[in-house]
Design brief:
The protein is mainly β. The strands form seven sheets. The chain has a seven-stranded mixed sheet with strand order 6-8-4-3-12-15-14, with no helix packed on it. Strand 17 and strand 18 form a beta hairpin. The longest helix has 21 residues. The radius of gyration is 28 Å and the shape is globular.
């Protein structure tokens, strides 16, 4: 069972909130933010009977899962559980999700507030599974490396999981992508291959207790990050087409290049493909039946791409014009078409108050590259451009949103413009590829003829104007 999640902060609203609403309205974002006083401290009505934190560093961002058995130690039922985060982390945190497990420092602290579906009775326990990811916190060390050197990242953490409540027992596990782990500072981990285990700690741990630690590990792969992704999904009923376009502002957050780029040395590595911290290729799996893909950048069409399509798969391989080393940037756009029948369903009965035929559109919230090292996005803007005349637009998605806007998008031969739903999300990772976006809208029968009538009237206007001009007498001499 998914639980309601709200975001509360000290002093200022730093980052996006994660929340889930079953039936959000177009004018509502999936977030709730509250400003708390400086001396705020969550009521000590819970204790953590057992807590296990799993940290995964196999991708270019940190992914953590906390399984905690919470116990109500108050004399009254309680339904609000707080999860603390440091102020310098909260604006990089996304994908916060909390579920019922049984039912599928000195820096300022900020909290996510989890509202339980039912108040937890005194002396009762509930097991929560809390998942989130943190982008842009892995630091290259050294900051600059040579073209063929290994890349090392520094991960700083606390061996004790930060909690707003006292904890009776806890353990922290960290999964590294390699066994080449050096400079381990803090704690005495139990090392098994590429996995470190801190604890279990069986003594009572007070609320807010931190034990700083760090580890440096080899990660000779790019840290792919998009500062902005603009994704357009355009629905055409007349053409039976779903056109998708994605515009990326990409950067590599890995170690920067020490010295000049050696193109001869880089060309030589194409024959045996050694590990590199540079981004050399992007793999974009598409839905079966994708057509007419394109790949362009600021210069124009990029020919170093390959598209493979069959009955079982559609795959687009992109090679940038140059390898993207640490600190380098590359902006580009990709697009493709698809058969609308695979994504759109027409309901026999319109929704209540719709006054027309209801349609349900189901598309992925996020597509784009799928890489082993992962891709993180600071900001994602998704625009769903519906046919002209669409109304009563509603949507549903599991991706936490910070802004929702309904506007008009004007294109060729439009009259008032096409209804457009714009959704904005912050701190998204490639795991959102599997999360659908469902848009429901009414499309009256009369609206389908708006475009043909507009074209017909436009052509008639041209002929009438030409006929009127032809009837004018522009001769200079007197009429005979």
């Amino acid at each position: 069972m998914r639980l309601s999640i709200f975001f509360t902060t000290y002093l200022a609203l730093f980052g996006p909130a994660a929340a889930a609403l079953a039936d959000p309205k177009p004018s509502e974002a999936l977030s709730s933010q509250q400003i708390l006083p400086n001396n705020f401290k969550p009521p000590q009505v819970f204790q953590n009977a057992n807590l296990v934190r799993n940290t995964n560093l196999e991708k270019g961002y940190v992914r953590e899962t906390v399984n905690v058995a919470i116990e109500n130690i108050d004399s009254k039922p309680q339904d609000q559980y707080y999860v603390p985060f440091a102020a310098d982390v909260i604006d990089k945190l996304g994908g916060f999700d909390a579920r019922d497990k049984k039912n599928p420092g000195t820096a300022p602290t900020q909290f996510f507030r989890i509202t339980l579906p039912e108040p937890l009775p005194p002396k009762s326990q509930l097991i929560l599974s809390i998942t989130y990811h943190i982008r842009s916190t892995l630091t290259p060390l050294p900051f600059k490396i040579k073209q063929q050197d290994k890349q090392y990242l520094l991960h700083t953490f606390s061996t004790h999981t930060p909690s707003a409540y006292p904890t009776l027992k806890q353990k922290t596990k960290i999964k590294f992508p390699t066994t080449d782990i050096t400079d381990v500072i803090g704690g005495s981990p139990d090392r098994q291959g590429s996995t470190f285990t801190y604890g279990p700690y069986n003594d009572l741990i007070p609320a807010g207790f931190l034990s700083p630690a760090s580890a440096r590990y080899e990660y000779t792969r790019p840290l792919i990050h998009a500062t902005l992704l603009e994704r357009d999904i355009e629905v055409s009923h007349w053409g039976g087409n779903l056109a998708s376009e994605e515009r990326y502002w990409l950067t590599n957050q890995g170690a920067q290049l020490l010295g000049h780029f050696d193109r001869v040395q880089w060309a030589a590595t194409q024959y045996y493909s050694p590990p590199t911290a540079a981004l050399r290729q992007l793999n974009v799996p598409l839905r079966v039946g994708a057509l007419n893909p394109y790949f362009t950048d600021d210069i124009g069409n990029v020919s170093t791409s390959r598209f493979r399509s069959s009955r079982k798969e559609a795959h687009l391989e992109l090679k940038p014009r140059y390898p993207v080393f640490g600190g380098w940037k590359y902006s580009f756009r990709i697009g493709w078409d698809a058969d609308l029948r695979h994504f759109l369903r027409h309901l026999k009965k319109p929704e209540k108050g719709g006054g027309g035929g209801a349609h349900v559109l189901k598309v992925p919230f996020l597509e784009g590259p799928k890489m082993g090292e992962g891709v993180s996005y600071a900001k994602v803007e998704v625009r769903v451009i519906l046919p002209e005349g669409a109304r009563n637009v509603r949507f549903e998605t599991e991706v936490p949103l910070v802004a929702v806007e309904e506007t008009l998008h004007r294109t060729f031969m439009d009259t008032v413009g096409r209804t457009t739903l714009k959704l904005t999300a912050m701190n998204v990772v490639d795991e959102a590829r599997d999360k659908p976006l469902i848009v429901t809208y009414d499309y009256p029968f009369s609206a389908a003829f708006r475009k043909p009538i507009t074209i017909f009237l436009g052509v008639m206007a041209v002929f009438v104007t030409a006929w009127g001009i032809g009837m004018l007498d522009v001769s200079i001499g007197k009429p005979s």
